[in-house]
Amino acid sequence: MGARVSVVTAVWNAREALKKTVASVAAMGGIDHVVVDGASSDGTPEYLGQTGTRWISEPDKGIADAMTKGIGMATGEYVLILQAGDLFAPGVTLDELEAELDGSDIVSFDVLVTHPDGDVRFLSRGLGAKLETSMSVPHQGAFVRRDLYDRIGAFEAQYKVGMDYEFMLRAKRAGASCKVVGRISSIMPADGISARRDWPSLQKRLAENRLIHSVHARGLRDRIVQKIYWSIYPLYKRLRHIGGRR
């Protein structure tokens, strides 16, 4: 019987961080691990050749393209995205995780985001109202049925930061079911582009989210709400950033 869970990892020139992720996944046991390397020049392909993971190394169009390739290679019923440096939380077992996989399209756990100035627990809110304005399903804790990707597609390569947010909105519009599990499954270091707190990175995320909102607006009401939201929210985020609050 094959693995029930596949982990997909996209990496580019991050060999040392990748080693931590590969070790974490291997320690769980019984997981199909797929690594998609974007033709790294730091020795990543040579390292992968020494591991038991399934992997490819070739140029890609960015992280969304790499993750989509990995999903296409996955064999598990559920797929979890863990990037280089992401880890399973200490004490979590595969049996405990699989016990929560009840057939829902998405089974979403919380994620611990580690910042130099303190850790933050990213609470999963599922596909509810919060998702209409911001990401509420951390992808490092989201076990997604592979057949959901088959039904609605995977990640859109045009998005460089918000591809996971766009996917979750698309899943919601398609009527996907989502189970929220109120415990931490994974740890994410805050060095990825989606977790950066500097203002240029925040601006980039805001710009992509605004585009995603416009693409997924369901009519006049959504467009009016979005117009009001985007007339206020960027200023709010800027003031919080100036004040040292993220």
UniProtKB/TrEMBL annotation:
<keyword id="KW-0328">Glycosyltransferase</keyword>
<dbReference type="GO" id="GO:0016757">
    <property type="term" value="F:glycosyltransferase activity"/>
</dbReference>
<keyword id="KW-0808">Transferase</keyword>
<dbReference type="InterPro" id="IPR029044">
    <property type="entry name" value="Nucleotide-diphossugar_trans"/>
</dbReference>
<protein>
    <submittedName>
        <fullName>Glycosyl transferase</fullName>
    </submittedName>
</protein>
<keyword id="KW-1003">Cell membrane</keyword>
<keyword id="KW-0472">Membrane</keyword>
<dbReference type="Pfam" id="PF00535">
    <property type="entry name" value="Glycos_transf_2"/>
</dbReference>
<dbReference type="GO" id="GO:0005886">
    <property type="term" value="C:plasma membrane"/>
</dbReference>
<feature type="domain" description="Glycosyltransferase 2-like">
    <location>
        <begin position="6"/>
        <end position="112"/>
    </location>
</feature>
<dbReference type="InterPro" id="IPR001173">
    <property type="entry name" value="Glyco_trans_2-like"/>
</dbReference>
